[in-house]
Amino acid sequence: MNKVKRILLYVYLALIIFIGILKVPVIKKWGPEQLIDSYEYVPLWKLKEVHKTIDGYTPLYELDLTRIIFELFIVSLIAYVVYLIILYSRTK
Q: Which residue in 19, 20, 46, 89 has the most C-beta neighbors within 10 A?
């Protein structure tokens, strides 16, 4: 049983790292009025791109915190349900 818990924990941590570092939801804004250009998933290290411009303005990436919290909640909920299913099937 401890082996199953450990494997589930590693999978959960890998998903959290993937969502929290490699694919972060951001809002791409540009210009003095902060017009929204697009919603994207980018790695953390690409939040600032100095080489790209939109009409002479450097686009800024703003973290979409509600989407990050929602995604982390969904991943945690799925991991918890899988854990309960495995725990329930092991006890029978």
A: 19
Contacts 24+ apart (CB under 8 A), 5-9: 5/83, 8/79, 8/82, 8/83, 8/86
- In whole angstroms, what is the distance from residue 45 CA to residue 34 CA? 21
Q: Taking the domains of the chain in order of start, what are their residue ranges? A: 2-91
Q: Which amino acid is at 18?
A: F
Q: What is the pLDDT of residues 2-36, one digit of tens each?
A: 787 888 889 889 988 888 888 889 998 877 888 88
pTM as predicted? 0.72
User: How many Å is the Cα radius of gyration of the chain?
Assistant: 19
CA distance 64 to 24: 8
